[in-house]
Structures are given as structure tokens and as C-alpha cells.
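ok so i was messing around last nite and threw this chain in just to see what happens. nothing serious, just curious
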Amino acid sequence: MADETAQETAADRRRRRDRFLRALNEARAVRNRVRPQQARAARMRRAIHLRTFSW
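result:
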């Protein structure tokens, strides 16, 4: 019984996480459509950060 409860809880957590990530991606897509210049600048900053990041 305890394993079933733990599994159900993990499944619920995954479903909640999936729903949250879908909403987050949708919100980012809307923001990028509304403010394309800001989105482009953020992409450029991220690219520069990744190029200069030391592993």
C-alpha cells in the first residue's frame, strides 16, 4: 500500500510539473511574440554567456 501511495504521489507531482512547464513555455512564447526585440536581446545575452562560460 505504501508503495502505491508513493507512486501515485510521484505521478501527481510529474503531472503538476508537466502542466507547469507547459504553461511556462506558453507564457515565454507569448512574451517573445509580444516583445520580439527583448526576446532577441535575451537570446544574444544567453549565447554570449554560453560562449564565455568556463566548464
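not much to say yet. The chain has a mean pLDDT of 88.
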